[in-house]
Amino acid sequence: MPRLNPDNLQRAHELIALYPEPRSALIPILHVLQEQDGYLTEDGMAHVGALLGLAPVEVRGTATFYDMFHFEPVGRYLVAVCTNIACMLQGAYRLLEHAEERLGVAPGGTTEDGMFTLEDAECLALCGNAPCLTVNWRFFGDVDPSRFDALLDDLRQGRLDDEVPPHGTLSRVRRSVGLTATVDTSARSDAARDGDRTQRAVSAAPSGSGGPAGPAAAGPAAAGPAAAPPAVDLSTHRTTAATSVMDAAHMEGA
Fold first, then answer.
1. Which residues contact residue 66 at a Cβ distance below 8 angstroms, ignoring those fewer than 6 apart?
2. Which of 52, 197, 206, 217 is the most exposed place for a label (fewest CB within 10 A)?
3. Where residue 216 falls among pLDDT bands split at 50, 70, 90?
4. How confident is the model at residue 168 (pLDDT cuts 50, 70, 90)?
5. pLDDT for residue 201 is more than 60
6. 180 with 62, same domain?
7. Domain span holding position 13
8. Residue 165, in any domain of the structure
9. Does residue 52 sit in the same domain as residue 174?
């Protein structure tokens, strides 16, 4: 099924609602697509791009940056053996060679029955239990050849189905937390909030000469030419004055 099915399309819309910008949901939705098909299809990526207002080349260009995404079919179980330094010292290459013999494939290959794809992985962050591997991103540590054989048997017999879902399932928990983005996320704009901060800072500052009764507090008749509008920092959308006040407050707190 190259496009998102109705249930996953609903999941995609729920993910989009969690972000101020729809394109921010790209990576989570790609994981949903990979969960559905086991890999990222061209039609599926085009569908995701249409949902987010992105060209297919933008979707593919982003996805190819991450090695968790696959663009060709893989096995039901993706077995990744870590060969980084901690695991290497504990016999990772011996384990990888054993895995190749048992599965009959080299790293990057998939068994004829479509059950297993083998990978040679960099650090999997389970160094304290080296040598380690992951199966569909679920961790298994202290793996020697005999335990590897037992793991394969458990996977084939379905004894680990509750622990290890089919490849592509990053999480079985549907995201339902976080702030839901709407058209108007606040009754007050950033400019209004920044204006309030600036006004409070000016009010709290010592008077320039003679206090409130001095020239600085004189009425409109004593006012000079109208001040130019405050400069706005385009990267933060805050006025220069507001940014200065906030920086000063931060330094005082430090």
1. 27
2. 206
3. very low
4. confident
5. no
6. yes
7. 1-71+170-185
8. no
9. yes
